[in-house]
Amino acid sequence: MINSFTENNGGLENSISLLIDLDGFEGPLDVLLTLARKQKVDLTKLSILTLADQYLAFIQKIKEKNIEIAADYLVMAAWLVYLKSKLLLPKEENNEELSGDELAARLQWQLRRLDSMREAAKKIMTRNRLGMDIFPRGFPDKIKLIRNSVFNLSLYDILKAYSDFNSRSQKKPYIKKRLFSHTIDDALKWLSIIIGSPVPKWELLESFIPESIISNQEKKSAITATFSASLELVKDGKVIIQQDKEFSPIYIKSKLV
Amino acid sequence: MVQNDKIIRMMEAILFAAVQPLSEEDLSERLPDGINLNDYIEQLKNKYAASGINLIKVAGGWSFRTAPDLSFLLEKERTVTRRLSRAAIETLAIIAYHQPITRAEIEEIRGVALSKGTVDLLMEANWVILKGRKKAPGRPVMYGTSNEFLNHFGLDNVDDLPGIEELKATGLLSPDPPQNINTQDDESHT
Amino acid sequence: MVQNDKIIRMMEAILFAAVQPLSEEDLSERLPDGINLNDYIEQLKNKYAASGINLIKVAGGWSFRTAPDLSFLLEKERTVTRRLSRAAIETLAIIAYHQPITRAEIEEIRGVALSKGTVDLLMEANWVILKGRKKAPGRPVMYGTSNEFLNHFGLDNVDDLPGIEELKATGLLSPDPPQNINTQDDESHT
Question: C86-169 maps to which CATH number?
Fold first, then answer.
């Protein structure tokens, strides 16, 4: 082990001399890949330990030159120190963490993946490219367009048009409908009939709605007003109301004081 | 012979990629010196004479152009969606509801003169067709809707068009704002 | 035989006139029914194989292009393309081989943050397009390559990318290292 270590250190000086600073590097993985390439072995046979040492030496060299180093390069350096310790120390049993070998294998896989993309990029860019190496027809024949019109119209449009037209032609004056209202005050007036009645008797709440109210819509509104008014009267201790169950008729009776 | 083929290939590429017809000077400039250009042009013309594209002289230069008898292949149909004017839609509606109807009757109903193009447009769309002549002075032509009209709007026949009463019921015909009275609900709660 | 020549002529006219590659459907639509299209494409390919223009399959369609070896003649037609940075080229390759892929995944592969402009530049060149969102927290957008990319680099489809089969086989295109990752070599150093 020690042998290989010193041996690798020998090669180290060479690689570092080629790398002067971080300019032109695309992150720590790029530095690692560049260093790995200098090992001149198949990436699958790469010594991660050697690589870690090379990277750490490289960062050290940069530090000595007082060149500013981006944080992610330092993070990688710290991680490689950790990886080194994992690789060099005896394996811990029953450890949940990934072993040094596994971590090294992962890093190697990452480097191979990045390398494969570098190679792929080269292959793509050296292809015969349109407008650079191969050319389409420069002056194509004009394509004559024959336009077919389709009208965008639905049955609804026709009906609406006919209705609008009829509405316009009928010239019926528009009469604004008077808004119906049966206010709580109105309802209180109607309910006051039973207040103070000497002979208290249950009456249907609805019987206190004027008979002139016929439409359901208006009735609904009147019932609401009458019910609210009756609650007022209950609060004042003037009447009692009763309902057997939901939606069943509501009865009202004067309360004897 | 090998040289000959090479020149022909070069001319093919140059003429194909050129963005405009190339004059003989343009061609000479881009081909090896000392060749007999006219000879090669003649060869290339013959090579393509029977094919779908021909080498022809246009606007003072040489260019590959589609063989004239195949120009029909270069027609492309395109469907454009157009909107009808309100007057046209209204006219179509009146024709649909009142057919057969004469132009004068449409104008009478609408209270305005019908511009010449309106009915033509509806006929061009294949929605309105002639429905004979009215037995009246001048025997004016009458219009009605076509089968195409029924198909397009998903109707079996013109009687399927909602009547005036139905239109009123849907609120389309009422000059009042539509009322959203829900009578069922009222009954169930009172 | 006469019929055969006629079809070939028609195909020449159609393919020469089209700017974009024409799919087999596009071609069929414009040619007589019931012909063996593949047979004719093969004939046409052979007819032009030795000439200055070739019939090639690109971006899922067929198109005539100048023969690659004659590019030196076409200086004038050469379009000036912006030089892409190394980061942009690498990102393009990663998107092409790993598509659909998120920005975070690209960054993971490169081991470095992607500067904002890089993907924008590739999208501006119409080579990279959005390919939906990943079903993952934050639903990040995914990128992929366009037809324009295939067209530009003379690829029929993404499965034609150089070396893609090999990369798939070695597992280098999968998001994670293989389970039984090889650790033997490292052990020799510890």
Answer: 1.10.10.10
Give the CATH class of B2-76. Answer: mainly alpha
**In this complex, how many residue pairs, one in chain A and one in chain B, have their CB atoms less than 8 Å apart?**
132
| 3 state SS of C161 | coil
Q: What is the CA radius of gyration of chain B?
A: 33
Decide if the complex's ipTM is over 0.90: no
Q: For residue A172, what pLDDT band results from cuts at 50, 70 and 90? A: low
Q: Other CB atoms closer than 10 Å to residue A162's CB: what's the count? A: 24
Provide the pairing of β-strand B75-82 with A144-151: parallel
Best A129, A139, A149, A208 residue to mutate vs chain B (most B CBs within 10 Å):
A139
Residue B42, classed as helix, strand or coil, is helix
Token duo for residue C96 = 């092409």
Contacts of A102 in chain C (CB under 8 A): 181, 183
Q: What is the DSSP string of A164-228?
A: HHHHHHHTPPP-PPPPP---HHHHHHHHTTTTT-SS---EEGGGGS-TT--SHHHHHHHHHHHHH
- Shortest Cα–Cα distance, B74 to chain C (Å): 7
Q: Which residues of chain C have pLDDT under 70?
A: 1-2, 179-190
Stretch B171-184: mean pLDDT: 45
Closest chain B residue to C30 measured between Cα atoms?
B73
CATH topology match: C2-76 vs C86-169: yes
For the cut 90, the answer to whether the pLDDT of residue A156 exceeds it is no
Task: Let me know: does C181 contact C163? Beta carbons within 8 Å.
Answer: no
* Domain assignments of chain C as residue spans, ordered by start: 2-76, 86-169
Handedness of CA C15, C19, C24, C29 (dihedral sign): negative
C-alpha pair distances (Å), A62 with each of A20, A25, A54, A57: 8, 13, 12, 9
| Closest Cβ opposite residue A161 in set B65, B90, B174 | B90
Tell me the percentage of chain B whose pLDDT exceeds 90.
23
* DSSP code per residue over B116-177: HHHHHHHHHTTSEEEEEE-SSTT--EEEEE-HHHHHHTT-SSGGGSPPHHHHHHTTSS-SSP
